[in-house]
Structure formats: structure tokens, C-alpha cells
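Quick one: structure for this chain?
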Amino acid sequence: MKIVRVLIYFIILFLIFTLNSQAAFYYKNYAVRQDMGVDVLCDIYTVQVDDYLIKIFKERGEISRKDFPYFMNIFKRINPHIKDTDLLQPGQQIYIPLKEILDENLPGQSTGLVTIPFVTTSDIKNVSNENAASYTIKKGDTVSAIVAERFGNFKSNDFRKGLEEFKRLNPHIKDLNLIYQGQIVKLPGNNKIDQPIPALPQIPIIDGLKKEDSTIPGIPSLTGEAPKQFGSPIGKAALLSPLTRASKILNATLRDNGKFYFPRTGTEDFEVDLEKYPLIELKNGKKFIFPINKSVNTDLNFLKSYWNNLSIISMPENPSAENIVRSVIDTFDPQHVKDEVIFNDHGVRVKVKAKWIIDEPSISDMISNYLCITFINSPQEKTPVEIVRYLEQHGLTVKDVLFSEQNQTDMKTTGKESEKNPISFVDLNSYKSFVKDLILAIGYNFEKNVDISFPYAGMQIKAQSNLTTKYDGTPLLIDFESLFGEALSAIKMCGIDIIQIKESDPILNIIKKVLTSMKLPYSDKPIFPATQRTLVHNTYISIPGIKISNMDKSDFNMPETLIVDTSLHYDIVQFFKNQNIKIVMINLPKEQSYLFGSTQDINS
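Got it. Here's what it folds into:
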């Protein structure tokens, strides 16, 4: 055993001198559970809000990759306290089986707990993908969509790596926004689920637990006895939940288990116990330590010689996630924190206003990344899932967080896609058919060549016209230049309203003339809030078009109508459907410019 310790000592010295001089060792605890006579290395995991087993198990360990049903059976046997795997509760602690250990070659394995070191500043390069596949660009393709289809969410590390790999494989593409139909590109051959699982480190350092002391905090003991209690009510248990929430809000990593060791010349390593000094690390590399006790270890300032982007934040006895998030953001340079972002998307103008909007590392030169955080009062104020999804594709991650830490499950959004009010398309084949199709599309009847009779110059004149109805149900005649002279006035003298539409009238004027004559209230270039909040913090979408309002607000079955002439993103269309807003799309000839021009500035 002494020889093993000496060997480990020289391995550590070798790592210290061969890695970056600012390297620090992070030690993570793993449990060893027996299943069917075989030792299984397990991760100790605390269930979070919105967790479910498939999400937790994703890319965890070689067992699940080889045989998922076998993996699930192991999970159930080593977690007898989980009665229903479909009903995990936040705060529950579970064992996640990672790897079967066939030989007892891990120091401390027999105790039921092993500790494995990691080096925080290791320079691990991505493995080049040599199985690139050729792909021909199709109409409507974008590089981001192609990469996302193979590597997942636009905000994920896998997507970022996939985008970098795409650029490496296609050096001839200088601007990823400029690809064309028929162009041949190379795509990374394997998506993320085809990547090999990294081997687990095999240099355990600590084996100090005795068999009788092998209870792990918060987990049913190996002997079946009740778990031991650690800390006071105002210690880790009280702080962990807000810290966990804050780290999720900030898209950060929380480390609250294990120890960091920092080499020091001429003296023993400096030790940071993460149970006493939890650490949050942001995506931009900034780190924050939150001492649980009021007295802050002054030696923690020593860590700044390793991490110059480290902040030490003292928290009150009863902290909230909002307090923690606010304390973190207060350390930011003001130029990296804003309260609004505006962008244009094919004529649609979008303004996102939030309590805090902070810069995040960019996925690529194409997209700037922002994290938009707002605390809200009720689940009903949450931004709809289709708008969250749409904004994410434009580099904005929206985090709407309830002030109250209770009823967090109410924050879930189903993302149900409404089948009501499909898009109606109106073509400009002729001005006559356009008027007819427009009126039908907005939900009113249109009858062609209706016989009419009216007195004129002492005679009873017979003619034909087109008939629709106004909002109040009274008739409206529409004439396409078939009546002349004072015939229009004579018809109106009979108490029947009539308008005349000419082929020379601009299309936009025709639309407004029809809507005005039908007594339909409308507005140009409308602005839609994403959610009905009393707060100023919201997302506002300005559409180049005309919105016909529903005058009877009590009748939700009567939809409002949006007339547009530009293609809308799928998620924007879905948002309008779920808001019971009918979309009428005018198909303009390619040579004709937009009817409605650019959108107006959004003033909230």
C-alpha cells in the first residue's frame, strides 16, 4: 500500500509540472454499490426541478450506452427508495450507475466511496471527425439549422462544437450566412450520441473512509440504516436550494460536493471544501464562491492568484435565488448588462426587454448570445414556449422565474400547438379575385353578380353587383367599374351602401377601403406583447401588416385577423394561432415590393 501511495504522489507531481502552472485539482466523490454480486461505480445526484430519468441518464456512463434496459434494472435495484421512476421529486438523491467494476482496482472501493481527481485547466481538444458526409444544400437550408438537426439545441455545447467542425470541414465557406441551393458541403458524420464516452479517470487519491463510516450524506446508507444528518438548519441545507435555482437561472455550473486542492510552494496544498464554500461557474468563466457560514475564510483570497475572475460573495442567513442572481450580476461590468435587445427578422421587428440581459459566449460569428432574466409574479406571466424557442434561435435565452420558490412545477409550458385558424393565402391574380378572396379569408361571405334594381332619372334600372356584409350585418355592394355616372349615388339614395374599386387602385388602398367600408376596426403595423404582464419587461413583436380587431372582446371564438405579405417564422405563426389570431398571407409577385413597408419602432 505504501508503494501505491508513493507512486500516486509522483503521478501528482508529474501532473503539476506538466500541466498549466495555474492548474488546480478537483476531487469528486463517487459511490460504489453492489448489484447482483458486481460492484457498480455510481454518481451521487440530487434531483432538480423539471428533471426526469431520460434527461438525467442522457450520456451517463457506459452501462446505459450498451444496454439501456439493463441499466434501468440496475438503477431500480440500487435505488429502492424510488418507488415510481416516473415520479421523481426535486431534492431526492439517487445513485446513477456509471460503470461496472469487475476488478477491485480502485483504492477505497471496498468502503463504498471513492474519490477521483480532475484537473480544472486541462486542455482537452475535440476529436476530429473523419467520417464527414457530403450534403447538397436545399432551398431554405441554413447552416445553423443543418448543424442543429445533427447536434441538437442551438445553445448546447454540442451545437457549438458541431458548428466549429462544420467550419473546419468547409474552409471555402467564408460567410456561413451565404450558402446557396445546389452547393455541396461536408457535414460531421456522427452526431453527439455517436461520440465515444470518455474513460473514467483511474487515479483515485483518497480512501480514508472506514467500512463502518460509509454512509453518504442524503443517500440511504449501504447497510439500510437511516442516513446521518450533516450541518445545521441554516447551513448547507438552507442555502443549497436557492444556490441550485440561481445556478440554473444563470445557466451556470454549481459545485457543492467534493474538494479543490491548490498547490502551494513550501507548504501543504490549500484545500477548499465545496460543502462549506459552494462554487458557481458561469459559461464565460467567471467564478463565485458563497461561504455558507458568516465568517469568511480570509485565505480564500489566495484563490485569486489562480482564478483572477473569482468573486467571493457573502450571503445572508436566508438567501433567495433572486438575491444570489442579483449579487452575481452586480459584479459584472455595466457594459455587459443591458435591459433590452432589438433585432429584425425578414421585416419583423422584435424587442426583448428583461430585468437583466447579460452577454454569454457566442456560438459563432453569426449569432450573439444573451441570457435574459426576469422575475415574475405568476406562471401566467411566463413567456410562451413558442416565443422562447423562436428567441433561442436568435441567440436569446429567456429565463422567466417566479419570485416565490413554491409551485415551481406550475412554470412548465406544454407547448401545445393549436390547430385553429390555419393560414389563408390570397393571390394577386386580378384585383377582382383579390377582393373576393380577401373578404372570404377574413371570415365574411361574398356573392358575385347579384341582381340589383334602383330608380335613376325617372326609370327603374336593373344591374348586377357583388354583395358582402358589414360588421353590423347590413349589406355592402362592391362594384368593379361596371356602374357609371350618378348610378352610385342613386343606389346609396335607396339606403344601400356601395363602394367602387378600380383596377388602378394600389393594393394597400384597396385593402383599407374594403375594411373601412365594412366598418372593421384595424391598425397598421401592429405590436404584439408576448405575454400579458403588468411589468415593463416583456417581448414585443412588431409585424409589417394590418391587424383587424375583434370588437366583441367577450367572444373569444371570434378571432382577430392579421394581414401580412411577408413570410413569418413557424414559431411566430404558432404564437398567433395560440392567441386565436387568424393569419391572411398575401402572395405578392416576385417583382413587387412589400405592401406594408418596414415596421415601426417599438415603444412599450
